[in-house]
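Sample pair:
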Amino acid sequence: MPALSIRARLLWVVLSTSLMAIILGGSGWWLSRAADERIEDIYSNRIEPVLALYLVTEQYQVVIVNAVRTAQGTGNEWLEARQTVNVALNNMAVSNLKCNTGLMNRG
């Protein structure tokens, strides 16, 4: 069996190296896409619900508790406190609707 010439050996090295680079590049691209999809899944299924829960908690703590404490402190502003609580509950419902329909601002 005759030995390969230098030109044939160089061609073999270049072709095999190029093929390995294409395979590695393709697998890297595929893994990058899979990681991007996983990150998007984590964001939409874990981060957005936490943000919605934060909005509900903030509305409850800041508006509703403050309105009730103000009404308890003065004793004569129950109607105003009730209106404030109703506005806060409506805002919480709108925030929840935005989160469930994907209308929350990302970022």
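The mean pLDDT is 81.
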